[in-house]
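User: Please predict the structure of the protein below. I'd like the answer in structure-token form so I can feed it into my own downstream comparison script.

Assistant: Understood. Taking the following sequence of 427 residues as input:
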Amino acid sequence: MDDGHPFRFVIVCAMWLTGFDVKSLSTLYLDKPMKSHTLMQTIARANRVHDEQKNNGLIVDYIETYKALLEALAIYAIGGDKGQPGEGGDIEAPVKPLEDLIADLKETIGATVAFLKEVDFDLSDAIKSEGVYKIAAIQRGVNAVCINDESRNKFGVLAREVFKKYKALFPDSAVYDFQPQRDAINAIYAVIYRNEEEADISAVVRQVQAVVDKSIESLNIALEPVEGYGNRVDLSGLDFERIEKEYLKLGSNQAVAVQSLKDRVEEKLNRMIRDNPFRVDYYERYQRIIEEYNTGKEYGAIKEIFDQLVGFYGDLSNEEKRAMREDLNEEELAVFDMLGRDKKISDKEKAELKDIAKELLERLKEKEFKIIHWPDKEQTASAVRVVIKDHLFNKLPYPVFEETDIEEKTEVLFDFFKVRYAGGIAA
């Protein structure tokens, strides 16, 4: 049924109990005795998820069918005898009483509050404060959570459980007893993850995010909107002395500045490695920085990590321009790097490798790479491997490159091409 249809309420006697499918159905009232498969299928009318907006349904039971549901579940869910759960032992029913849902939500919020206390933040500060004081409190919560990746990820898991169990209580009025805690958790989560689908962005959250963005902007980092991808950071032309001075002014926002910069560095690094897998040295260097970040919690450690990330981003920007300096495009540079890897070559040999990279790509793009999903076609894949090997055998300078080198680099290039050009290229 169309979700926008004005038909909203129906009284069912029999037929629509077991064969009627409306995923958006939110509430089901039971006032007649049912059992076995009829009861199971009736319950299924309400408990289906729908469009990420509905992850549960509400069943209002006037005649206490819960016991009959457990009996039916024992038979139809796991194939045991009536009333017996079979080899799997006790099972969790697909329907829970409201009091159990309330208890689950209360427990999850309690776990989240306890975790925030572990990272030295009291959620009640964000609940009770007003105006700019509320913004400041939420910002303290963000900084506390962002002390390292482990802390951030753990909070994300806990917060999402809170959101899920909070939604499960609707439309019961008991949900409003937990709204202040949920909203405060939601505000911190939204600032950290910037994800409007996972968490509702309130006016307060937007104000907090503006504070964070302003802090990042003050570090001489230009934030340029990129459609569909949030904000992209350009750290070209870095003034390290100014960045250090501005960072010291951030005070309580320093952990957020590190996290924001870290996310942007990671985005750039992943893209560059996809273009050229032989930039793995940069990945290993980044992992060492992040390892320090996840183990250090003192001010000095956070400051040092920030400086390392700024320097690392500068090096990434410099590497990104290397193709232009070598008079190659990104594809040619990747092939050139693979050919020259672990080899000491002269300037003359370096120039030869550049020509070999350009010619090899041009040759393969003329024919084999124009075939869609060529790696899945045995004949074409074999042809690609032959073209690579023959080209390297005829062109690579000897004795710098021996026969074993040709075999090795043929396989390395073939594996790279399988990933990079698997879908083929436009004719």
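That's the full token string. The first strand starts at residue 27 and ends at 30.
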